[in-house]
Amino acid sequence: MALLEVRDLTVQFQRKGEPSFTAVDQVSFDVEPGQTVGLVGESGCGKSVTSLAIMGLLPKRGAKVSGTVDFEGTDLLRLSDKQLRDKRGRDLGMVFQDPLSSLNPVIPIGVQVTEVLERHRGLSRKTAMVEAAELLEKVGIPDPTRRLTEYPHQLSGGMRQRALIAIALACRPRLLIADEPTTALDVTIQAQILTLLKGLVKDLGTALVMITHDLGVVAGLCDEVNVLYGGRVVEKAQRHELFAQPRHPYTHGLLASIPRLDAPRGERLNPIRGSVADNIPWDNGCAFAPRCPNALDICRERTPVQEDLGGGRLLRCHNPVQPEVPQEVSA
Amino acid sequence: MLRYTVRRLIQLLGVVLVLSLLVFAWLRALPGGPASALLGDRGTDESRAALNKQLGLDQPIFIQYFKFLGRALTGDFGNSTGVQPGDSVVDIFVQRFPATIELSVFAIILAVIVGIPLGYVAAKRRGTWFDNLSVGGSLIGVAVPVFFLAFVLKEVLASKLGLPSVGRQDAIGATRVTGFFVLDGILTQEWDAAWNALKHLFLPAIALATIPFAVVFRITRAAVLDVMDEDYVRTAEAKGLTAQVVRSRHVLRNAMLPVVTTIGLQIGALLAGAVLTEKVFAFSGVGEALALGFERRDYPVLQMLIMVAAVVYVVVNLLVDLSYALIDPRIRTR
Amino acid sequence: MAIGSAKKERIDSLAESTADDSGVSLAASAWKRLRRSPVFLFGSFIIVAFVIIAIISPWIAPHDPSARDLADQVIKARNEIPKPQPGYPLGGDLQGRDFLSRLLVGAQQTLLVGVFATLIGLVGGLALGTLAGAFGGWVDSLVMRFVDVMLSIPQLLLAFGIGALFAKPNLFTVILAVSIVQIPVFARLLRGSMLAQRESDHVLAATSLGVKHGAIVFRHMLPNSLGPVIVQSTLVLATSIIDAAALSFLGLGNPDDRIPEWGQMLGGAQTVIDTHPQLAFWPAGCIIAIALGFTLVGESLRDALDPKNRR
């Protein structure tokens, strides 16, 4: 049985005096124990909202969540606030995008690590401190005992993200959700943090949901990838297949827009045209159609349904990119 | 941190010096100068000239200022002409200052213990009737003149609640130690006296507390609303901490930073409010002395007490800024 | 200087939060939200109602507010004043003048005190703040040091002090006392938002295009700094009316009560509040209502102009 089964997760935001806005639309995916699953898409595609909905961290007022999120057989969406608090931090950990604003500025790092140990494992502050030092050491923070007494502003960006990872993994959760954990960091640090995450989830056997807009991150980390557009999953595939043969024009575009070092000199980059609108309608036709190079008339008339291509591969497109047949070089 | 403190203290000295210049200039800006001010309507041209000579007012202005400064440094601020005629202004101050501190501290405590929880709950229930009602109430509180509220409490509530409506303590021969009547009663274990003084404090403190209350409430509410949206609160929730820990350690701790500053700034309004409130309740503190001083144009009393009020205000805010460093490590470890 | 860097920061942050580059669109979107705000509408309703009363009071007041029509019913020895009677629905005051007429006509002077006090504070602050904010450098330092020392004296106490300077107070000295104390607040506010402006893109653009310094100050920086100043002005309209009442209460108000003003009426009623509470309650109610009106409008303006609330 899967560790996490998300079925038809839908999140609607309702503001006073405005039409409701669907941020996540019937998203379904599974995470097996120890597996790393990617949720990929541009900002505004609903990937962060999906993660917050799983954790139960969306605002109670204004957000309507439906569907099911089965974690080890219990639907997280049906749990009471108290039951959810027991699970969060213990069974489910989360790492956020901006490490500076995600740490409390007026509390020492040590307390921010120990409070989760005290809460879920009933340790005393003293024992928790010892363990916190070990945790910091494990995530690669040098001189951990000194760092425990310091405040977030005294740490570098990379150190802060390491501390946040230590906090999220303190109770050895079975699932870790990482929401763009490297976006706010320097490029050189990004690689270090990804390597660290990869090693830790492997050691601890933690399943990881990696949320990112960066296909480079996916390539290095994920077993399975879900590509989101306009709040829906448009393509789902194993990592290798996705990179070898992207079928959805959007996925194709994302891959083509990555600058390649081995590209011939003078070749232009291929960005996807346009940008994500605030509210993308799936009602009449495909939401990606206005930006799609492959768009046909049908794409603007009928909403594409999700097809199972076999081998765990799903696609939502009327006119997918055809698998490339190795071309013969003509003289 | 130490350098910061020293620098602030030096700045404080500068402010006090400029203040003394202002207060000095203030008396000289009076129509007819200090002599008419001291003599009042009784003054003739001759008596004024004589007093001018006696006060050294015929000398160049900067020499006058340095003499004024010299006297002030030795604690000589002259004698009262109207509030307690003939008494040394410094004596009047020493006698009355504890009363005002007692009243102000009590008012601040009231404002804080009501304002902060109310502000927190209003923010948590933003947009509900509770929120709207308390915000509306705080706005009305700002619009009500303090002395009028004091009168209403005195005339309407005092008799209903059986609380005394004037003075600081009924004459029951309590022992004086510090001049703080409640504290004296506790120190000497004269519980009746302490209770009696506390009862006298009650209504004036409520009237005075409305000034800081409205501000503390609204700043708390705004700060909690801001902090609740912060990423670190989401992190705290993601850790599965109990609602109480999230509230006290993560939300309130950060939301209190602007509130502390606000309380410091309210001291100024509180001192001015004490002038009005103490007059209504005949509460014999420096506020009442100032009120009487304004009524009877007792310039020596006004001169010193206004100066003291400004210095207290500046010093309290210095202390607030320093204590701010204690609760905000970003400043402490800079 | 020493007075709470905190206080300065508060005023400055208000200046920044409501100052915005896009003056026009900000005003437009603020207005859009204001029109729907019940707080704003209620506050404006109160203000408009009182302004109308002030304007038409000479015609609707049943009697001359300074005429002692009922003087024969005032019996000092028994502390009696005219009771409500036909033609005099609220009775008379301590001098036997028609109380209702005095309340109605009192709206005029009270609003005048508020408006003039705010204007003087605004113009003074505008002069100082523009000077400091526009030129920067030593002009800025000098002006702001002066402003800081003024801010270090509790505001209302300073107003009392200025009021006490005048041996024979009148309406003008009252206005002066409550307005001078507002000058440093306005000055700091303007300087803060102008400093924020000076760094902003459109001022840099104008500078790089060679627009003259004076033109930049008056055409670009000043208009864009107005948001926070408008908010503060509305709030000062309320405080100056309340402060004027406090001056009257301390005997620093206008002693000439032929032309009525609510603060003065309230201050004058303090000695008889236990026997004739209505003499205090009516003017106090009017002051509370008008001050609430201005405060509501000011607060809703502040919310509407705050870019944080624009989503």
Automatic annotation (TrEMBL), chain A:
The keyword Cell membrane applies. Transmembrane segments: none annotated. It is found in: Cell membrane. GO terms for molecular function: ATP binding; ATP hydrolysis activity. The keyword Ribosomal protein does not apply. One of its GO terms (cellular component) is plasma membrane. One of its GO terms (biological process) is peptide transport. It comes from the Bacteria. InterPro entries: AAA+_ATPase, ABC_Ni/Peptide_Import, ABC_transporter-like_ATP-bd, ABC_transporter-like_CS, Oligopep_ABC_C, P-loop_NTPase. Keywords: ATP-binding, Cell membrane, Membrane, Nucleotide-binding, Transport. Signal peptide: none annotated. It is a peripheral membrane protein. SUPFAM superfamilies: P-loop containing nucleoside triphosphate hydrolases. Residues 4-255 form the ABC transporter domain. Belongs to the ABC transporter superfamily. PANTHER family: DIPEPTIDE TRANSPORT ATP-BINDING PROTEIN DPPD (PTHR43297:SF2), OLIGOPEPTIDE TRANSPORT ATP-BINDING PROTEIN APPD (PTHR43297). This is Peptide/nickel transport system ATP-binding protein.
Automatic annotation (TrEMBL), chain B:
Gene3D superfamilies: MetI-like (1.10.3720.10). Keywords: Cell membrane, Membrane, Transmembrane, Transmembrane helix, Transport. One of its GO terms (biological process) is transmembrane transport. The chain crosses the membrane at residues 12-29, 103-123, 135-153, 201-219, 255-276, 304-327. PROSITE patterns: ABC_TM1 (PS50928). It is a multi-pass membrane protein. Residues 97-324 form the ABC transmembrane type-1 domain. It is found in: Cell membrane. Belongs to the binding-protein-dependent transport system permease family. This is Peptide/nickel transport system permease protein.
TrEMBL record, chain C:
Keywords: Cell membrane, Membrane, Transmembrane, Transmembrane helix, Transport. Residues 107-298 form the ABC transmembrane type-1 domain. It is found in: Cell membrane. It is a multi-pass membrane protein. Pfam families: BPD_transp_1, OppC_N. Signal peptide: none annotated. One of its GO terms (cellular component) is plasma membrane. Belongs to the binding-protein-dependent transport system permease family. The chain crosses the membrane at residues 39-61, 111-139, 146-166, 172-190, 229-252, 280-301. Its main location: membrane. This is Peptide/nickel transport system permease protein. One of its GO terms (biological process) is transmembrane transport. The lineage of its organism: Bacteria, Bacillati, Actinomycetota, Actinomycetes, Pseudonocardiales. InterPro entries: BP-dependent_transpt_permease, MetI-like, MetI-like_sf, OppC_N.
